[in-house]
């Protein structure tokens, strides 16, 4: 498998209201998400969504620019077919906490065909590494995305 280069850094401040809303959305009702006392941890998988609401422009390193969602997905949207979220894996080096400012970088694999699939299918892997501002690892994520091109015949089993 061949990987593209790591993308530009994205800095995110973890805000408590976003953590609390996410916890409620995933039906995690532990009381520590709604308290002001002590360190408030993030629910599992929160780092998957945190850049959507916590990557404030004033946090970003000088000279970096995050592509818009439209720019990031333009190539995907131009190909007719079905995109599926295959799986995701998280490796926690420590628990992210409310108030943390983390810096993430993402890279993608070059799409590759799935061998022995019943119909043509491409797999793309997305890796994201989240670190604190001292460079210590916090969370490593890997997401598998599947693409089934439109109009491709299914092979017999």
Question: What is shown here, in short?
Answer:
With 157 residues, the chain is an alpha+beta fold. The protein has helices at 16-25, 51-54, 69-77; strands spanning 10-13, 81-92, 101-108, 112-113, 122-132, 137-149.
Task: Explain what you see.
By secondary structure, the protein is of the alpha+beta class. The protein has a single domain, classed as Hotdog Thioesterase (Thiol Ester Dehydrase, Chain A, Roll). Strands 1, 2, 3, 4, 5 and 6 form a 6-stranded antiparallel beta sheet that branches. A hairpin with an 8-residue loop joins strand 4 and strand 5. The protein starts with 9 loop residues before the first strand and ends in an 8-residue tail after the last strand.
Name its key features.
globular; 3 helices; alpha+beta; Thiol Ester Dehydrase, Chain A; 6-stranded antiparallel beta sheet; 157 residues; single chain; 32% strand
End-to-end span in angstroms? Answer: 26 Å
Number of helices: 3
Major pleated sheet: 6 strands, antiparallel
CATH architecture: Roll
Output the radius of gyration: 18 Å
Helicity, as a percent range: 10-25%
Give the overall shape, derived from the CA principal axes: globular
Which range does the strand content fall in? 25-35%
Overall pLDDT score: 88
CATH homologous superfamily annotation: Hotdog Thioesterase
> Which spans have pLDDT < 50 for at least 5 consecutive residues?
none
**In the residues, how many domains can be counted?**
1
Structural class: alpha+beta
CATH topology value: Thiol Ester Dehydrase, Chain A
| Total beta strands | 6
Order of helices and strands: EHHHEEEEE
What is the CATH C-level name? Alpha Beta
